[in-house]
Amino acid sequence: MGESAMSSSTLKDENPQYVPEPLPDLGAGVAGKADEPHPGGKVKHGGFNQSLRMLAFGLYFISCLVSINITQIIGAPLYFINKDYFYAYMAMTKQSFGIVITFMTQWWSPTVVRISGDKSVRGQLRQAKDGRLECHFPERIVLIANHQLYSDWLYLWWIAYTNRMHGHIFIILKESLKYLPLIGPGMLFYRFIFLARNWAKDKPRFQYRLQKLKGEHAGPLSSTQSLDPMWLMIFPEGTNLSNNGRAASKRWADKEGLEDLRHQLLPRSTGLLFTLQELKGTVDWVYDCTVAYEGIPSVSPGAHRESGAD
C-alpha cells in the first residue's frame, strides 16, 4: 500500500514550468508559497466552471443535510417506543452522512491518501484488488488524532467507512458547533459529545455521555459482542493548528518548561485521561492516528508564522 513520494527536486526537474503555488488559509496557521507543486496537479477548471462546481456542491450538500435531518426527525419518536430500534435508526442516518461526505470528496475534491502503520496494525490494513482501502479494526476503540485542518474529521470518518463503522462513530467537539444550522441538530441526534472547555461545567455531562457509550442494545446494526459498537474520536490538541492555537501552545510550553512542537500543538491530557478512566473495562484499544498534508511547511519550535509570511 505504501507509495514512495518523489523529492521536490525530482518534481521540479520533470516539470520545468513548475511555479510554487500560494498556500490557501485552511486553518493550519501557515501561508506563503508551497515548496512542492500541488499533488493534484495544476488547476483543472477556470473561474466560471469553479463557480458552477461550487454551486452544485452547495446544492448537493445542503439538500443531503436537509434530507438527513428530516429522516432523523421522522425517526425520533422511536426513542419512546423502542430504544434499540431508535439507536439502530440513528446509526443508519449516521451511515448516510458518512456516505455523503465520501461521495462529496470523491467528486468535488478527489484526494490521494497514503496510509501506513507500524507492526501493531499488521493485518488490519488491506488494499483490495480494485484499489479500495479495507480496514479491519475492532468494533470498540478510542481514536486519537492530531488536528491540522478542518477537514481532518472528514478523512477519519472515511477510515471508519472502510471499516464499516461509519454508523458508529462518535466525536468530541467544542460546544459552539452544536448551534450550527442543520449540522448541529444532526450531531445531537448522533450523540456527539460537546464540551465548553470549562472542566467544572463539562465533567458531569461528559461523564454522563461516556456512560451512555457503555450501553448494550439489540436489533439492527447491533454489535457482534456484548457492548454497542463505538469509535470515539478525540483531538487531544483541543483545536486545529491555527495561529491562535500555536501561540497558546507556545505560552503553555514556556510556562511548563516544555519544548514546543513543530507540526502539532501540545495536547490537553485531562479529557483523554478522563475518557479512558470512564471507559475502562469496556474498551481495549486506543489507536493513535497522525494526519499530515503535503505542501504545509514545518514551523520551528516556538515560531509564530504570520499570515502572508514565507
Topology:
Layout: H1 8-14, H2 47-75, H3 78-81, H4 83-108, E1 125-127, E2 133-135, E3 140-145, H5 152-162, E4 169-174, H6 183-189, E5 193-195, H7 199-212, E6 230-234, H8 243-256, H9 269-278, E7 285-289
Parallel strand pairs: 3-6, 3-7, 4-5, 4-6
Antiparallel strand pairs: 1-2
Helix pairs in contact: 2-4, 2-6, 4-5
What attributes characterize this protein structure?
310 residues, alpha/beta, five-stranded parallel beta sheet, disordered N terminus, disordered C terminus
Describe the structure in your own words.
- The protein is α/β, with parallel strands linked by helices.
- It contains nine helices and seven strands.
- The strands form two sheets. The chain has a five-stranded parallel sheet.
- Helix 2 (47-75) runs antiparallel to helix 4 (83-108), helix 2 packs parallel to helix 6 (183-189) and helix 4 packs across helix 5.
- The longest helix has 29 residues, at 47-75.
- The radius of gyration is 21 Å and the shape is globular.
- The two termini are 34 Å apart.
- The model is unreliable at 1-20 and 300-310 (pLDDT under 50).
Strand order of the largest sheet: 5-4-6-3-7
Count of helical segments?
9
Q: Share of helix among residues?
A: 25-40%
Detail the poorly predicted runs.
Answer: 1-20, 300-310
* SS-based class: alpha/beta
> If you compute it from the alpha carbons, what radius of gyration comes out, rounded to the nearest whole angstrom?
21 Å
